[in-house]
Amino acid sequence: MTVTVFEDRPETARGRWLYQALLATHAHIRDHLASVDRLAEAVLDGLPTNELQAELEALKANTTLWQFQVSCLRYCGLVHMHHNAEDTMFFDELEQTNPAISPVIERLRADHRAVSDYIDTVETGTRALKDDDSQAARRAVANALQALNEHLLAHLDYEERNVERTARRLRDFSSEGIRLESGSYG
Q: Residue 12, CB half-sphere, CA atoms under 13 Å: how many?
């Protein structure tokens, strides 16, 4: 059996498609982070607690960012949807394709857990505003929102920079009778 080393692997249609899908998902997340920035400013400007909670509920219901908390940033224990696939299948396949990427994958998995913690901090701070609507409590919520934003943007940038070469070389299913059509596979 001949083993192809990573450097000799050609790019595949599936690999290119998956990397483009990753970039599209990240663009969507970045768009929603603009709402997080706006919300942090509104908190400091005195947005009433009930309106802040309504804004957070809208973010949770309508944006990928908060759906990640429920479905994927909770890597330890709540592995679902997008990051579940990323953490358990995409990352595993990246490591199988290129074992040298393992330190990058470890960092990305740790980032997923950290972002989940940032989201928890935002939600805890927001709930606390019911009992303490002081400027200091508002500053804590705004700081938590800003920390979430900064960490998640850094995570997205790091992931894009460090997985591209490997992702573009993932196994192409077309050789197994599975065709890539209309932007999907499987």
A: 19
Q: What is the residue range of 68's domain? A: 11-173
Residue 49 in any domain: the answer is: yes
Please, are residues 43 and 137 in contact by the beta-carbon 8 Å criterion? no
pTM (predicted TM-score): 0.74
**Coil/strand/helix, residue 184:** strand
DSSP label at residue 100: G
Residue with tokens 């802040």: 52
Give the CATH number, domain containing residue 77. 1.20.120.520
Q: With respect to residue 1, please indicate whether it lies within any of the assigned structural domains.
A: no
In the chain, what is the straight-line distance between the N-terminal and C-terminal CA atoms, in Å? 27
Q: Tokens in use for 85?
A: 């696939």
Mean pLDDT of all residues in 58-71: 57
